[in-house]
Design a protein that fits this description.
Elements: E1 3-7, E2 10-14, E3 25-30, E4 34-37, H1 45-54, E5 62-66, H2 72-75, H3 78-84, E6 89-92, H4 98-101, H5 106-114, E7 133-135, E8 140-144, E9 147-153, E10 162-166, E11 172-175, E12 180-182, E13 187-189, H6 199-211, E14 217-219, E15 223-225, H7 228-251, H8 259-266, H9 276-300
Parallel strand pairs: 4-5, 5-6, 6-7, 11-14
Antiparallel strand pairs: 1-2, 2-3, 3-4, 8-9, 9-10, 10-11, 12-13, 14-15
Helix pairs in contact: 6-7, 7-9, 8-9
Bound molecules: zinc ion.
């Protein structure tokens, strides 16, 4: 597994999300104790463990596993990781923590959200004993040696979304709060999935994060980016474009608009390269989430 050293106290493991390099990272934050940020799916856990081996980190040295939100590529691997890392607690927003101890209600909704083509790539969730799950929404985690991680509520992409600030370097483990940026696949867009996407919260989150003047964001998909304001501005532009596209489809009275066609119009992604599945699946998920959001907003008369 490829591992990276991004800062004196921050490394990362490419866990080959969706079977591809360059799509998903688990970050490794080291003080006197060690925290992982993001878990990948159940299907990537063995890669993450191999990455820990490559970094020379013994299994019992990891005390914390931080998830930004309950989506499968961010928390799906938590149960299997917790089983392999016996001293680790798992941190997630308390509004969704029950799904990590009893995933039975979550899985059907995930399947609907990601679609049949991408569903087999998302794995399953191993239930975690409740005593190993901790609420993360007000987390201030002191890892020792001056390394502290502090949670920031960043809803929008999902209501439970949290990002974690590295108070030592000032950077933010941003999860999916502002979108994905995968330079090597020439993909950069905000992900706005069903069922719980919230545009107003999302715009507010991006505005609050812009005001923090962050020196760096660490994206789960994918890697560190120091051109922070440019990325936030791009995410806002993409949101505006998606809203406009979806509104046209709704205004035209389309009951079941062609999601693939709308996604291709929003984010043209030519060819059948390795990332085409990611581009198609995540952009269509975004179109469908925004359609649902806009329809509901109109029903409310807001
Ligand atoms: Zn997500």
């Amino acid at each position: 597994m490829e591992t990276f050293q991004f800062d004196s106290h921050i490394a990362a493991i490419d866990h080959h999300l969706l079977g591809l390099p360059g799509v998903g990272l688990t970050y490794v934050v080291r003080g006197e104790t060690i925290a992982l940020v993001e878990t990948g799916t159940s299907l990537t856990v063995s890669n993450t463990l191999a990455g820990l081996d490559a970094l020379g980190i013994p299994r019992d040295a990891v005390e914390h596993i931080l998830c930004t939100h309950i989506h499968m590529d961010h928390a799906g691997g938590a149960g299997y990781l917790a089983a392999a890392l016996p001293r680790a607690s798992v941190y997630i927003h308390s509004m969704v923590s029950e799904h990590l101890s009893d995933p039975s209600k979550l899985m059907p909704s995930v399947r609907r959200a990601v679609g049949e083509e991408a569903w087999p790539l998302h794995g399953d969730i191993k239930p975690i004993p409740t005593e190993r799950i901790r609420p993360a929404e007000e987390l201030r985690l002191d890892l020792g040696a001056g390394v502290i991680l502090a949670a920031i509520n960043t809803p929008g992409h999902s209501p439970d979304h949290l990002s974690y600030r590295d108070l030592k370097g000032g950077a933010l483990f941003i999860g999916d709060a502002a979108g994905l940026v995968m330079d090597h696949y020439e993909l950069a867009f905000p992900v706005t999935p069903v069922p719980a996407y919230d545009l107003v919260a999302h715009r507010d989150t991006i505005a609050r994060l812009r005001a923090l003047d962050l020196p760096r964001i660490y994206l789960t998909h994918y890697g560190p980016h120091d051109d922070v304001d440019r990325q936030f501005a791009h995410a806002e532009e993409c949101l505006d474009a998606l809203v406009a596209l979806v509104d046209v489809a709704i205004d035209a009275g389309q009951e079941h608009p062609d999601l693939a066609a709308l996604a291709a119009c929003w984010l043209p992604y030519p060819g059948d390269g390795p990332a085409a599945l990611v581009a198609r699946s995540w952009s269509q998920m975004s179109v469908s989430g925004m359609l649902r959001y806009e329809r509901k907003r109109r029903e409310r008369g807001a």
